[in-house]
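Sample entry (216 residues):
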Amino acid sequence: MSHSLNEIEAMSKRAARGAGLSWGLAEEAAKGTRWLSAFGFSGAGMLADLLEMNDRIPSIDVSPVSLSAEIWHAPTRRMSPLIAGASLSDCAVRLMERGLITMENVSLPLLSVPFMGGAALRLGVPVAAEWESARLATDGRQVCVQASPDALEARHAEKLVFSAPAEMTGRLEPMLRADVSEQNWNRLSAFAHRTFAPATEESRLRGAGAGLSDND
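Predicted structure, serialized as tokens:
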């Protein structure tokens, strides 16, 4: 099914909130899913994969233990790409100073790539991400991809390395709409429905318009 990027972003935000992510992280997840979708990646499907993978797991368990460490890792040895990416964006200046930031055991590494765009715009230079058989670089507006489909869809990266400044060779331009399979849309919808408040007897009566009083 073809969806506008606005629709994809709105659904992704509701799904992320339904999965228990904070408002801030849900907004970042939605923007990242929109960004990936605009460049033809299966952002919605990957977000659904991540939400199912980390369902009911406290965010602290999949967050970097220390942002000042030489190599970032999470307590569970399974880092969320959303939290890793948001942390990377916050540490953009540190990335420029070091030249590299390395992370270990990151789930669905492609989901961390949109956050490079924010870092690149902040730094004014392209930023690259590399994991096994994959390299992507972006200046925040365009993206360069050197990877096989299997590498892009990897569910786990033992090592994820971000670098700046990066070289961009070959560029993809963003699109205004993206295809999302019905299955992936339904998977996100299932999480989004968790944000709906359960109906009470009073709300059901009001919704039906029945009323309990007779003014005649």
